[in-house]
Amino acid sequence: MTTATATPAPAERTDTAGRAGIRRLWPRRNPWRHPWFLEGFTWLYLLWSLVPVAIAVLFSFNNGQSQSVWQGFSWRWYFADPVNSVLHDPNLHAAVIQTLRLAVYVTLITVPLGVAFALGINRWRGYTASAANFAMILSFVIPELIFGVAMFFLMSFFQDKNKFPSISLDDGIYL
Questions:
Q1: Which of 67, 70, 132, 141 sits at 20 to 30 Å (Cα–Cα) from 55?
Q2: Where are the domains of the chain?
Q3: Does the reported pTM lie above 0.70?
């Protein structure tokens, strides 16, 4: 009796070798690795968003009336000025109280609704869930679209009149 060993056909060998070559070209990456680019981009976006707010808060403690030139630290606009400070002007004081009251009410209403909506969207499957998710995302996008279209029409209006607005940090927009 003779023993015969089965050897694969040459076509099969080249096929597996071809697949191994393709696999070698694809980088093997761990899908659970740390997303450095995403994290860096997120931090840049947060800095880009929060630095103007921090500058506005810093300039609220400015000694002078300028909003672009630092003239020293002062509590003038909050406590020190007997006429124009938030503490002594009844209209400003009422506005601050109303703003804080409104902030508390909005927080008490929107946080539970947002958490419930997020949990519901996470657990809900199907076409209606996709439509609800689309409506939620659309509510974030529409204000930016409206603002962009409004700016387009505004700049088109100024271009037709050969008149462009000049913007000054101290005084606002002049036409």
A1: 141
A2: 34-88
A3: no
CA dist., res. 12 & res. 79, Å (int): 85
Q: Which residue's entry shows tokens 């808060």? A: 57
Task: Write the secondary structure of the chain as one string of H (helix), E (strand) and C (coil).
Answer: CCCCCCCCCHHHHHHHHHHHHHHHHCCCCCCCCCCHHHHHHHHHHHHHHHHHHHHHHHHCCECCCCCCCCCCECCHHHHHCCCCCCCCCHHHHHHHHHHHHHHHHHHHHHHHHHHHHHHHHHHCCCHHHHHHHHHHHHHHHHHHHHHHHHHHHHHHHHHHCCCCCEEECCCEEEC
